[in-house]
Amino acid sequence: MHPYHLRWHRYRRLLAAVMTLPNLDVETPVLHEFSGQWPCCFTGCAEAGRYVHTARPCMELQSAMVLELVDAALQVIEPLSQRTAAWQVFARCAVPQLGLGSLARLVVLLQQYGPDDDAELAVLLWQGEITQPASTIKAVQRLRSLVTFLQGQGVTDAASWLQWRDTADAQAVLQGAQHQPPDTINALLWHLDSGRCDVPWVLMFARRGLSQAPAHGHIMLAVQEMAEAMDLSAKALARRIAWHERLFQALDDMPEFRLAWWRCVKRTLQAQLTNATWVKLQVQGVTEPLPLSLAVHLRQGQPMLTIQLPRAFGAAPAWRNLTIVQLRQEDWGAGLGLRLLLQGEGVLPAQLQLEIAKRWKVAQLQPPVFERLSAKQWEISSCWCDGLWKPSSMNPDDVTVWATDTALQVMEYVQLLKGMLRGEGAG
Q1: I need a surface site. Which of 4, 6, 100, 101 has the fewest CB within 10 A?
Q2: Residue 14, Cβ neighbours under 10 Å: how many?
Q3: Nearest-CA neighbor of 60 among 100, 18, 20?
Q4: Which H, E and C letters describe the chain, residue by residue?
């Protein structure tokens, strides 16, 4: 380990965060970015009538390209704090308001507002956050030039953009484009040259993952070591981190709403499961102790609500009894990936497992996964995607309705399972 490196436990924590980032898979088909539906990894959620919050669309691969191009255009803005504020306003306000979910949609907007309308378009794109009129017009002009140049290179979407910028002759093509404005060439070279434009986003990712702001050199050295371990170049890994961090920052985040959501789920389930002997809401997957009162930590680990129910003391050994109800958040993003775990004691014969799966399917619940923990202990899990997390367009009442709906979904699973266990008797 380098003598001036991050502390080892922080390096491991940052590495764990990096390893969760998906590859930039340009082959994966992207749903229509404004369909208003969560691109669910589990089939049947929408068809089953599950709650879907459709106030704002999710950020997809195509919109990530638009975010990157605007980031390049805004390099003309100083200081950095004002540039960052302008980018975040674009990502969180202009993208949904103007429907800028793909390069094609950006091209249409630039055609609707010609060069004579650059000042008006700048107000729309950056919501007045840039107070220097000359800079706003320059940023719009650079964005126009970037889009025009890329169209001339055959770039029409995110997939072709990622492929073009990774070609060996991309820099040579730029350096030979003498007819292009120097600002356009410089902005694209900045993106292609060692990924320097990605550094601020890598640092932002590290600060978020470590809950502190380590030294710039230590972070970049850590990225270089991680890249070697992953058989990547430091440039490629930094680019991957930056790509996903832009998407993350574009998701307008309100930590207090997340905490309110989980607390409402907890209250609702406690009101339904009145015989609970123990209830705990905690955050898993974080190496350092983090108090739940700091709502921001809900996104650094896995929020988990665990409810313990009475055991069947004195009953026959084979008596089937539900003892634990656990709801866990598997991931963040534009929605909630939830995993429900139901654990109990007794014996679950194969025929009963088939009947439970059949009953859940009839009730339009997600398919169960059974696991035999021991001769007299079993576990049933089920996963689903619950809505689009877009709190900037929500209010506290929306959050309460969403959380209550989720808790009642959990109760559907619990009540159906308990009913079948009671109906089967002691076997």
Answers
A1: 4
A2: 20
A3: 100
A4: CCCCCCCHHHHHHHHHHHHCCCCCCCCCCCCCCCCCCCCCCCCCCCCCCCCCCCCCCCCCHHHHHHHHHHHHHHHHCCCHHHHHHHHHHHHHHHHHHHCCCCHHHHHHHHHHCCHHHHHHHHHHHHCCCCCCHHHHHHHHHHHHHHHHHHHHCCCCCHHHHHHHHCCCCHHHHHHCCCCCCHHHHHHHHHHHCCCHHHHHHHHHHHHHHHCCCCCHHHHHHHHHHHHHHCCCCHHHHHHHHHHHHHHHHHCCCCHHHHHHHHHHHHHHHHHHCCCCCEEEEEEECCCCCCCCCCHHHHHCCEEEEEEECCCCCCCCCCCCEEEEEEEEEEECCCEEEEEEEEEEECCCCHHHHHHHHHHHHHCCCCCCEEEEEECCEEEEEEEEEEEECCHHHCCHHHHHHHHHHHHHHHHHHHHHHHHHHHHHCCC
8-60 pLDDT, tens digit each: 777 887 887 788 777 765 444 333 333 222 333 333 333 333 333 333 333 45
- Between CA 263 and CA 281 the distance in angstroms is 8
For 341-364, how does the pLDDT look when each residue is reduced to its tens digit (9 = 90+)? 999 998 888 899 999 999 998 988
- Spatial contact of 110 and 144, defined as CB atoms under 8 Å apart: yes
